[in-house]
Design goal:
Blueprint lengths: L2 H11 L5 H13 L2 H8 L8 E8 L8 E8 H11 L4 H13 L11 H11 L3 E5 L3 E7 L1
Antiparallel strand pairs: 1-2, 1-4, 3-4
Helix pairs in contact: 1-2, 4-6
């Protein structure tokens, strides 16, 4: 029994989810292909493991630069895409509407793990650098 299935059963035993919800979660876990997950976990030069966001701001008269350094594992993003498949359809419509209102043109009904893998491959060659007077922002994959 894999860890995800065991976790769902523990949630059911603790009363955190109903039997129907547990059944739906386990069915979604059964639909997940195992080969792409292991392929995506391999580290190769064209397959980065992290999305890095680095911000450095120099405030006039400050004690030094303020630095923010964020490393988001792509595995976390992949897990989020897989979890999106568990969102009820009515909620997906509300999420899409809220995203559109905030200027984010993403349709959560169309998210697929394969699409994220393709995006990660393309991000390997991308570096975004924004420099202003006292601030520098860099976004890249590593």
């Amino acid at each position: 029994m894999n860890d995800n299935r065991l976790h769902v059963l523990q949630m059911l035993a603790a009363g955190q989810v109903s039997a129907e919800e547990a059944d739906r979660l386990i069915a979604a876990l059964d639909k997940q292909p195992t080969a792409p997950a292991t392929r995506a976990a391999e580290v190769t030069p064209g397959n980065p493991r992290y999305l890095r966001i680095f911000v450095e701001e120099h405030e006039p008269g400050g004690d030094g630069p303020t630095k923010v350094n964020i490393r988001v594992p792509f595995q976390l993003l992949r897990a989020g895409v897989r979890l999106a498949s568990l969102i009820p359809n009515g909620a997906k419509d509300q999420i899409n509407e809220a995203l559109r209102k905030n200027g984010v043109p993403i349709d959560v009904t169309q998210l697929k793990p394969e699409d994220l893998d393709e995006l990660v491959v393309h991000l390997a060659d991308l570096t975004i650098v924004v420099e202003e007077k006292d601030t520098q922002v860099r976004i890249f994959a590593e």
